[in-house]
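Section 3.1: Structural characterization of target chains.
Under the original work plan, the team committed to producing a structural model for every single-chain target entering the pipeline before any wet-lab resources were allocated. The record below documents one such target. The sequence was received from the expression subgroup and is listed exactly as submitted; it comprises 739 residues.
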Amino acid sequence: MDLVPALEEPLKQPLKSVLGPATAKVMAEHLGLHTVGDLLHHYPRRYEERGQLTHLADLPMDEHVTVVAQVADARLHSFASAKAPRGKGQRLEVTITDGSGRLQLVFFGAGVHKPHKELLPGTRAMFAGKVSVFNRRLQLAHPAYELLRGDSEETVETWAGALIPIYPATAKLESWKIGKAVQTVLPGAQEARDPLPDSLREGRGLLPLPEALLKIHRPHTKADIADARARLKWDEAFVLQVALARRRHADTQLPAVPRAPKPDGVLTAFDDRLPFTLTEGQQKVSEEIFADLATDHPMHRLLQGEVGSGKTLVALRAMLAVVDAGGQAAMLAPTEVLAQQHHRSITEMMGELAEGGMLGGAEHATKVVLLTGSMGAAARRQALLDLVTGEAGIVIGTHALIEDKVQFHDLGLVVVDEQHRFGVEQRDALRGKGKQPPHLLVMTATPIPRTVAMTVFGDLETSVLDQLPAGRSPIASHVVPAADKPHFLARAWERVREEVTGGHQAYVVCPRIGDEEDDPKKTGKKKSPEDEAEKRPPLAVLDVADQLGKGPLQGLRVEVLHGRMHPDDKDAVMRRFAAGETDVLVATTVIEVGVNVPNATAMVIMDADRFGVSQLHQLRGRVGRGSAPGLCLLVTEMPEASAARQRLNAVASTLDGFELSRIDLEQRREGDVLGQAQSGARSSLRVLAVIEDEEVIAEARQEAAAVVAADPDLEHLPGLRTALDALVDEEREQYLEKG
């Protein structure tokens, strides 16, 4: 993070390596650690106490673990095999214990001799390997180990101190080898330059950085660990918030055309024809947006709202305000299905106000055009012409809007729907379409806890819609344990039939399409027998639709919808479903966002454990959109005690998206949340936990804003500048720009 020449020294060099070349190579390739500074910031995951032993009962399956335990017994068995037909094969089975649980270790062949001599009952050691199950018992096959004897010089030196650091490791490099490497570079910590301003560090009573690095790697007491972590959390929170504060500051320096709404234009006409009144939340958020649009620097606002809270209506009112002010507005959707859906619902809401330049169009009308990649040439030409002449005030489209050929007359506002599916370059390319940077409104239906919004979307101001409009119905959700209680699944299909008989419609959602078998890339991967037995492939749309049509839903009108269908076919299927000509739609997650069919009241999600919490919440939001109550059935074969079942129970127990997003975040690693896909292999957060450290993040945001306001270029804070350069490398920079 805060690398200076001594800490920038590469671990691997042609002439002299800080570490052995092989170790340095593994660190670079598997852990992303290239310099002394990187290694110093590779903090222990936890600490073992010499007098205490690990809980063997809680080990995660299929993960690489390091445990400290004692050998209970060791037995050498002979057996016959293809390689050793005369019963000369040897297998060493060692049982280790932590006093409460036991774990089996196995060694084969020539690999049995050394452990047979060393792993005698009563011996304590650190063991590292991948946890698997054999004969229903947990085991580590051929684990690496390090004896904790305390008699040899090196062991005493390395493991002096009661607390043994356990590092995030890989199969290629055990925790204790990383520990030894850290010991080698630890003297370099003295050279670490402090990114925190002195006044801030002293005011909050935080350790100096060199001392924090020393204490996190070689703590003598638990208090050392707590002090070091408190200091390092501040580094991470503060440097990240400074990066975001600088972005916000830079954005306020950009010019933009103010777009104040006119009192009696198309927006007023639209409001007059609405058949309902806006919720308080919608009015409040609209005011915030209108205030931003009236300023002479670009709005950057995140609008997050529960599924069905009326975000599209708020966004449409913002677009109409910009049209009134003489500009154009573009709405970007992640899929063609969604772009078509938005176009259909917006033109329906606007009625004759969307027929600008046409016979029967209202006085203040504008033109609303759709632009997607699969449109016919003539329709596309006309849409492009309407944009460049300014005839169309509103355009709705997919990535196709970003192509070079698309020119606007005067682009004033960009609305991005479902931001997390949108890349940096795309947002910037669209920004470049305006004469000056357009205002930006980002919408997401994935509720984001406040701290994540401050961390991930920290360069955007946030508005929240948490009221549901009147007339929305409650949704009852239930987990259907198909393996434990097959009759529950049969009942689920009866419920779907009952809904259809009552004049309603239903969705059945599956994780997969089902025609992937012909993809040579995917079939080429060999799976181990354990994989085959443990993990059957997820249920597929095409198979499930076929089985339902011939079985439990025979006689109902069942159709399929998935992402690999031709766009025209997808649109036709959606239109038939919306018109009530289809009873049951069997689909992939293409229906996750924005699909609005008020008559659909039931949803059955197959293999629900294969979806994330937020995704299940999104999917569920497709039912209960009309006056009849909704029903969502989460079908799973996972056993009752599994984490997957607990996740599904959480989804079934609450309709509060913010509560679910908290649960989701607690169950996943922060790296996923902070866009690990965009920010390279390592999440930049090592000790900061987004949910638990809410106070640190909120305070760091305030401090960062004050520092940047006083010294935007950080001229007086060279340590902070260095830390920022390391954090905001190119990948991070892009990720932060993504919002």
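The two ends are 21 Å apart (CA to CA).
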